[in-house]
């Protein structure tokens, strides 16, 4: 293989605070939307993420049994809050050039609407960034990754309420000012298009409260667009060499057949995600939005100045997660559906294998994704998440995860192809570089890491860290700048 990875390629790993840190009640932290997700192994798997029904913030606090933390796996995470120094040393040992992470909003603003930040939370991230910089690992920071303050949801209605832009900007301003000398790469919102699929964790809206849910979703998205533009502007002003990127969950969609109806449906489905990068990268609502909104009965409330803001402060780079592709049919009821985190609905592609969680594995789809995004925007691309969720087995102190190596190797080879195609890709962060709690199912047993965490789905175990076989493999990939893929 001829190697096309550029010399300064940013190799690394990615996590999110709510899935990794634990310490949910330490240092003055408040409850986030993810802290109240339950896990109950007695329930059928498809009900594991059933969330508690909505109450006020204080009612939640009183009603939930805080002593049985194992019901809420994201409260424990993998105890990174206490172990981050040792974990970062392992990232450094693999040779990470970058580490994508998020800041838990509720460590800084426990309820979200306070006027002063919580100093203990700020100090935690100071120490974390210092530890990364000690090893020359460049932090790439998501401001909001499925962990908004619960209080902003229960008391304000989440992002459907425009006032949340102000609270978010207060958080962003605090963060940029405090860490301006430590962080240059920023992502205002993780997977901003996932409002489509997970409105509760993405934008904090409760479906039952909105008779026209599409209106609430797109209005919330508009508020996040405005917040992204404001954050981008402020970040550029405070940190002159900062790079601020947008981020979507990207699933390559292909027509199930050459039936023209399948082809049209695929174009429309792919647009439900590209809509978000269209707005954030080009700076305006795409022409197809008018019909989309008409058909969904959406009338956006756009304030004076909003559209000018979007135009003026577009993303510097496009980042995305990529796990799978999916086939699209105009007649899905006649066919077997694909499973998993499908933001667009999808049909099982008979040419592809699936993970245990039904995610269809398609490395070549990543090359297509990179080409499609680069053709469309001509901006640098960053692969912010990619990986295989699998059940690993710890035996005699070892984890032989050859299936993970095969998955990652195949995807990295396709990035190399895309680089050869002329696509500008400047970095790759493997998702869940250390085992963390799954976003969608709240299990730790859906593992992605190079580093095994000795804990089970009920939070029992030593939490010791064990290097999997993939650890040495990834280390050599980074060392050889992709030669040893
Ligand atoms: C992405 C999210 O959608 O997928 C992550 O940004 C998440 O937070 C990842 O963990 C993998 O999904 P899951 O459900 O397997 O954890």
UniProtKB/TrEMBL annotation:
<keyword id="KW-0378">Hydrolase</keyword>
<dbReference type="InterPro" id="IPR033132">
    <property type="entry name" value="GH_1_N_CS"/>
</dbReference>
<dbReference type="Pfam" id="PF00232">
    <property type="entry name" value="Glyco_hydro_1"/>
</dbReference>
<keyword id="KW-0326">Glycosidase</keyword>
<dbReference type="InterPro" id="IPR001360">
    <property type="entry name" value="Glyco_hydro_1"/>
</dbReference>
<protein>
    <submittedName>
        <fullName>Glycoside hydrolase family 1 protein</fullName>
    </submittedName>
</protein>
<comment type="similarity">
    <text>Belongs to the glycosyl hydrolase 1 family.</text>
</comment>
<dbReference type="GO" id="GO:0016787">
    <property type="term" value="F:hydrolase activity"/>
</dbReference>
<dbReference type="InterPro" id="IPR017853">
    <property type="entry name" value="GH"/>
</dbReference>
């Amino acid at each position: 293989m001829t190697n096309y990875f550029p010399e300064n390629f940013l190799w690394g790993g990615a996590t999110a605070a709510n899935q990794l840190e634990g310490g949910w009640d330490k240092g003055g932290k408040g409850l986030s939307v993810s802290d109240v997700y339950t896990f109950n192994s007695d329930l059928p798997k498809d009900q594991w993420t059933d969330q508690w029904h909505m109450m006020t913030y204080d009612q939640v606090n009183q009603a939930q049994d805080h002593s049985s933390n194992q019901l809420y796996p994201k409260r424990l995470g993998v105890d990174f809050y206490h172990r981050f120094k040792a974990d970062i040393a392992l990232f450094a040992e693999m040779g990470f050039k970058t580490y994508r992470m998020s800041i838990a909003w509720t460590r800084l603003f426990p309820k979200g609407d306070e006027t002063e930040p919580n100093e203990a939370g700020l100090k935690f991230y100071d120490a974390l960034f210092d530890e990364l910089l000690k090893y020359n690992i460049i932090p790439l920071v998501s401001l909001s990754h499925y962990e908004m303050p619960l209080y902003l949801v229960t008391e304000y209605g989440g992002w459907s309420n425009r006032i949340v832009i102000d609270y978010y900007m207060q958080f962003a301003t605090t963060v940029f000012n405090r860490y301006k000398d430590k962080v240059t790469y920023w992502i205002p919102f993780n997977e901003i298009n996932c409002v489509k699929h997970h409105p509760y964790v993405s934008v904090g809206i409760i479906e039952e409260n909105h008779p026209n849910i599409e209106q609430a979703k797109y209005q919330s998205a508009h508020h996040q667009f405005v917040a992204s533009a404001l954050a981008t502007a402020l970040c550029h002003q405070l940190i002159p060499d900062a790079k601020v990127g947008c981020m979507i969950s990207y699933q390559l969609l292909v027509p199930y057949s050459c039936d023209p109806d399948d082809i049209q449906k695929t174009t429309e489905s792919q647009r439900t995600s590209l809509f978000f990068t269209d707005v954030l990268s080009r700076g305006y609502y795409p022409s197809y939005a008018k019909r989309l909104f008409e058909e969904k009965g959406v009338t956006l409330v756009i304030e004076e100045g909003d559209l000018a803001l979007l135009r003026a402060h577009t993303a510097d780079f496009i980042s995305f997660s990529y796990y799978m592709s999916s086939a699209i049919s105009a007649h899905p009821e006649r066919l077997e559906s694909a499973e998993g985190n499908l933001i667009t609905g999808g049909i099982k592609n008979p040419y592809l294998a699936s993970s245990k969680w039904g995610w269809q594995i398609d490395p070549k789809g990543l090359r297509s994704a990179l080409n499609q995004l680069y053709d469309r925007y001509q901006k640098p691309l960053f692969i912010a998440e990619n990986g295989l969720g699998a059940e690993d087995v710890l035996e005699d102190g070892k984890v032989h995860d050859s299936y993970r190596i095969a998955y990652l190797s195949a995807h990295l080879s396709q990035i190399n192809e895309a680089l050869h195609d002329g696509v500008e890709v400047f970095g790759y962060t493997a998702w869940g570089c250390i085992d963390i709690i799954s976003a969608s199912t709240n299990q730790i047993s859906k593992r992605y890491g190079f580093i095994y965490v000795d804990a089970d789905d009920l939070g029992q175990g030593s939490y010791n860290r064990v290097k999997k076989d993939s650890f040495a493999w990834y280390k050599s990939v980074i060392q050889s700048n992709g030669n040893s893929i």
